[in-house]
Amino acid sequence: MAKIWVFAEVNNGKVDTAALEILTKARELGGEVEAVALGPGSTDAAKELGQYGATTVYASDDEVYADYVAQPAAHALHELVKEHAPELILFATNYDSRDIAGRLSARTGSTLMSNCFDILGTDKARTTIFGGATVVDVALEGTPKIALVRPKSFEPEASGGEANVMPVEVDIPDDLKKAKRVERHEEQASGPKLEEAPIVISGGRGLQDASNFELLDQLAGAIGNAAVGATRAVVDAGWVPYAYQIGQTGTTVKPGVYIAFGISGATQHIVGMKGAKTIIAVNKDEDAPIFQIADLGIVGDALKILPQLIEEIKTRKG
Amino acid sequence: MNIAVCVKHIPDPNLPGELDGQRLKREGVQGTLDPGDEFGVETALQLKQAHEGEVTLVSMGPPQALEGIRRGLSMGADKGVLVSDDSLQGADALITARVLAAAIKRTDFDLVIAGVESTDGYTGTMPSTLAELLGVPQLTFTNAIEATGDALKVHRQTVDGYQVVECSLPALITVTAGVNEPRYASFKGIMAAKKKPVEELSVADLGLSADDVKVAQNIVDISQAEERKAGEVIEDDGSGAAKIADYLKEAKVI
């Protein structure tokens, strides 16, 4: 039976949700599903990975994987691949995973497919091009194959299994301990996390100035249980931190309701939010592409409508 | 500090993309230097200003990719290398990395700079594959860079903020669009670029075999995605906010 591996990121003792999504899918493919988790908290994380379908978890709690970018993890993975010969290795399209998968590809000579939103078998995966307008199925050759899967592609579902934990004992050569993380400035915003919020309110260039993002925060507060996001353009302009970015690069969201203010709808943005159940868009330009996918489109000035909407909601909520 | 910058010539991202059989159509399509690569070129030029050395642009692509290199040269880079070969059509990220690694190894480099991902393919793994093949560490998703003569300290973006990462040279970095404001090419720069050397190489020139560039992924099916239908679009006549509130009530949000 083909062996399918899922590389699971564990950060601050928490398993990346995308790993659980991918495990759920891997189970469905009918192979022998195993997971690899490297860095502090990984051994404890094995329990949860088992519940989502990993029969074996190769785990190491060694700090070296958290302290140094990509090289130690790619080395350990490569050693494990040589020993256990998986057919397919699945990663989430996340920061550290992308770095590690790229390095592994060089070492194993594996073809690598990125941005998959479905895995069709151990040798075939599905992605979209042209901002999601065209679906392409790609056949992969060689062993192992590597695929990176976009977060939120599958609904995570526990199967209630239990994983056999195999400690990873790989020596990391000193010359792979080079790119060292010396400081971390990572804070989770208050309120629900962007990728988990049932309601997402986001802003683009049409908000004209960084200070106007305050209005989005106020609206999120008035509605409750909402998170604020942004387009790449305003993140690049330095209006809001990168953590706000929704799109091809950035976070993928699938909320119940997505409200876009002053966002034209570049494909790079659309890819990250078109899975929303309901889309509401406000934009001055009636030809903005966002209106082509919005359930409700208002052609108007976001800066005029925002204060009105905040008042309206406060009034209706009493 | 000698710097190699990976640059890619891509179909103009502002025009609708087209497929030519199983590949992105490139022939006869208006092309441009990937806008994401301008940040890499600018980073290199700023580092050169502070630390001297030479900036080499390295590209893989069809002969017209020379235009992309010329654009980077007109910004101020010193020279270019273009690897062009029929056998590279449909190359995946691994093959691209092998080709660029072979080309970069011929230069005397201290630092390699690439964009985070290309605007047309956005695989996002080529730079780390390249770093592995070159045997150097990688500092990815950087939006602030501090360099001394033989080491780097960068801010690496993450989902919840950033990390400060340090390493010694040689190394590879990928730069985000937040890292700087790329300069415009001056008329003088454009004229000077025409005279700057660009070496054109084939796969064989790099000492790579047919197996090294054998494509291992192929599109087997193409279909149109299920389209989201446009809903109601109305002009705001002062009732826009109330209309949105009605909608939110219907969706049981308020």
Task: Give an overview in words.
The complex is a heterodimer of chains A (318) and B (254). Chain A has 318 residues and is of the alpha/beta class. Helices cover 28% and strands 28% of the residues of chain A. The relative contact order of chain A is 0.11. Chain B is of the alpha/beta class. Chain B has one domain (3-213): Rossmann fold. Chain B is built from six helices and 15 strands. Chain B has helices at residues 35-51, 66-75, 93-105, 126-134, 187-193, 240-250, and strands at residues 3-6, 9-11, 19-20, 23-24, 31-33, 55-60, 79-83, 111-115, 138-147, 151-158, 161-168, 171-175, 198-201, 217-224, 232-235. In chain B, the strands form three sheets. Chain B has a nine-stranded mixed sheet with strand order 11-10-9-12-8-1-6-7-13, sandwiched between helices. In chain B, strands 2-5 form a two-stranded antiparallel sheet. In chain B, helix 2 (66-75) crosses helix 5 (187-193) and helix 3 (93-105) crosses helix 4 (126-134). Chain B is globular and about 65 Å long. At the A-B interface, helix 5, strand 7, strand 9, strand 10 and strand 13 of A face helix 3, helix 4, strand 9, strand 10 and strand 11 of B.
Strand content of chain B: 25-35%
Quaternary organisation of the protein chains: heterodimer
- Number of alpha- plus pi-helical segments of chain A: 9
* CATH level 4 superfamily of chain B: HUPs
Total E-strand runs of chain A: 18
